[in-house]
Amino acid sequence: MSAGGTIIGFDYGTRRTGVAVGQRLTGTARPLTTLDMPNGHPDWTAIDRLIQDWAPTGAVVGRPTRMDGSVTPLTSVAEAFAADLGRRYDLPVDLIDERLTSREAETELRQQRVAGNRGRIRKQDVDQTAAAVLLRDWLAQPPLADTDRSA
Fold first, then answer.
1. 28-42 average pLDDT score
2. Where does this protein chiefly localize (predicted)?
3. What is the pTM of this model?
4. Which of 6, 55, 96, 119 has the maximal Cβ count within 10 Å?
5. 8 Å CB contact between 24 and 12
6. Quick check: is 151 in a domain?
């Protein structure tokens, strides 16, 4: 992927998909939204709007695996989503290990709540925050590793 620009991140799920945006230049990412997955399928109309609004130079999709690194039933579904995303929008798409991103997202959100910066934590909040966590993790990796992460 190019050295600069906006990157969009997806924490893919069959019920909901968290979305985050980030900047390669600053290495920052923030939660954006959570998309419902009608009948377990991507809401391409909503994704079309996000791609149009944010004009990303690339995308990152979380690749679900078990704690030992082995694949899950959702692994191939997330990989197929990443491939579809790349083809549909002519974007480079990288996959990144998403183990523990939801747990890290829940911890971040609880800390914000304890600090008085937010109210109740909903599942949608966790999904989009998990997308921001995996996108930050990806942004923190050395650029040379990009070739090993492509979908």
1. 91
2. cytoplasm
3. 0.81
4. 96
5. no
6. no
